[in-house]
């Protein structure tokens, strides 16, 4: 009897694990929107944008975009050039050809930070310069084991269209010419971000109502509409990483309720 209960419990747990995992998979049948290097799919109150592009690491010559700025006392003797720091502002193109469409810049630093393996600690921003996301940034910070065939880096945030961003990037070396000191790195970046407009709507209502810029009846209507939208969004089961946002959303709605009570009491 006890064994059967355990078995049932295990089955339920496995089912939940599989279901949760399946839900987290990035759909592959994405409807392409915009240019070929960028695709966006909408999933509930979230958007997932896939960016695919090529980063040009030019380490020498008149058009160099990467420079060594520091060495440690052991860089020269270290098998991994430990402690060397490079700063870069690399061109990003839609295709491998450096003369193809320019879509972004990769700006940041890479620090040799592993005494034993070839791995750098990378901190960089993808600054999008073309298309619908022009002006927005995606921030990356993580460990890059440069000699491995495929490397994964975390997306830690973003600005503009990519506020509240999270996700990951996968990178491979498309070309490495050590004589010319030139490399092309292929990147696929998955950025998930919530429908920020929803939160700013609610904030607008609170702000507007507080300073009495429209009639109480109108305010009540807008609050009701925003609350309805908020309920829709929270029903979408915001992931754990969005818990803070969800909480502040609930706090905002509490505040809105309070304002209404005061206004109509
Ligand atoms: C540097 O860039 C200029 C302008 O794009 C180009 O004419 C020149 O050939 C480049 N030099 C090298 C060494 O690639
Ligand atoms: C660091 O060391 C390399 C190789 O030893 C040297 O070429 C470079 O000039 C040094 N850079 C700095 C900033 O000290
Ligand atoms: C590439 O770098 C190496 C050392 O890192 C240097 O000896 C060589 O001259 C560089 N090549 C060019 C084309 O600058
Ligand atoms: C999500 O994508 C849709 C369709 O491209 C767009 O209309 C909407 O504004 C996007 N949402 C955010 C928060 O960017």
UniProtKB/TrEMBL annotation:
One GO biological process term: phenylpropanoid biosynthetic process
Organism name: Salvia splendens
UniProt signal peptide: 1-22
Assembly, per entry: Homodimer.
Keywords from the named record: Apoplast, Secreted, Signal
Organism lineage: Eukaryota, Viridiplantae, Streptophyta, Embryophyta, Tracheophyta
Chief location of this protein within or outside the cell: secreted
InterPro entries noted in UniProt: Allene_oxi_cyc_Dirigent, Dirigent
Name of the protein in its database record: Dirigent protein
Family from the record: Belongs to the plant dirigent protein family.
